[in-house]
Structures
1.
Amino acid sequence: MHTTRRLFQDTIKKIERWETFKTALFKENPILLLLLGIWPVVALTKTAKEALIFASITLLLLFFSNFFVSLFFRGVPYQRRTCVFLFLIAVEVTLLDYFLRLHYPTFRESLGIFLLLLVMNEVILSRTQTFAVRNNLILSCLDALGAGFGYVWGMMLVGCIREILGNGTIFGQIVFGKEFHKSPMLACNLSGFAFILLGFLIGFFRMINKREKRV
């Protein structure tokens, strides 16, 4: 009887963990459904590589923010959470900035001011305030991974479409032949096109999400 009960509890925990990850990845996708962290999607998705790099950095910071908040700051009063969490994120971004400047200066320069603006990234701040501060360490880490990978594939989707249409390449490799590569749709490289594309993608995925809820 005890073994059966323990097996049942373990199964419930696994289901809860999987649902936490899946919800953050798909049902609450930061970009396409919650509209969080939109500015890098517009500014840093000219190529798929650029989008992948910045989104991966965001994932890394999100993971460590959720980790430390869930481990050390769950008892912070509600009125002080924003200040404390912003300070934590600022420390993480500053340490990452120093590390990149020391070991990868060229790469750091390519990120420009956008790396420092991650201190105010809505995805990181929202997941720490709405989830990590209220849940245990394992669930908080899974939520961070789900939201982080959701942010990655959201930015990657926009970056891939813009690079294919704007340059005729994907990760620098020609995909539609040399003719298209020589005369691509240059308007796709503009930030305005990123806004329009993002609007269509948000509408499309929200429509799918509504249909799934009805079913």
2.
Amino acid sequence: FTNGAVSAAFAYAFGRAAQSEAQQGGPNSGSEPVDIWGITDQVDSALDAHRIALATDQASEAIESHLNSPRVRNPRGHRLTRPISNALWDFAEHVGRDIEVVSGYRSQARQDEIRRSGNPRAARYSPHTYSDAADIRVQGLSAREASIRAYNSGVFNRVNYYTTSNAIHVDMQDGVTGYYGIDWHRTTP
């Protein structure tokens, strides 16, 4: 609390105590000293009420801010490492939009299955197999625009735009930074 707030609370309590004594014709209604302990209790009560009101206001603002802030939605509960999770939250804040995780962790067996299915984009060793990659959609943005914004945000090591999907790939692959690709062909956005 500021000194002004404490002074105002003390003055308020002092005035109320003196007024109460005068109205009741008590021993302190004249020029005699006012009971300082009674005033102190009133000041403490006033400060407690002020603290409660301030904390309530701050909590309400925090809840409203959280409810109105962009979110990372992971409806299927895909496993993700802390670095990619943090990057997704940072990106959601950067673009001011909700993000949906479409794919996260997949086993090496599943990755091999994708490769065998004839998918030319499937890597032999994917960061998806150690939970450090995600395929995402950004609310209200095309995949192309989302990929450009993801790259420009600087929070991911690699960003890939799939021309045949409405999702983009982002990851935190070690040893690579500033990668932007279209169907895994390195280019500039």
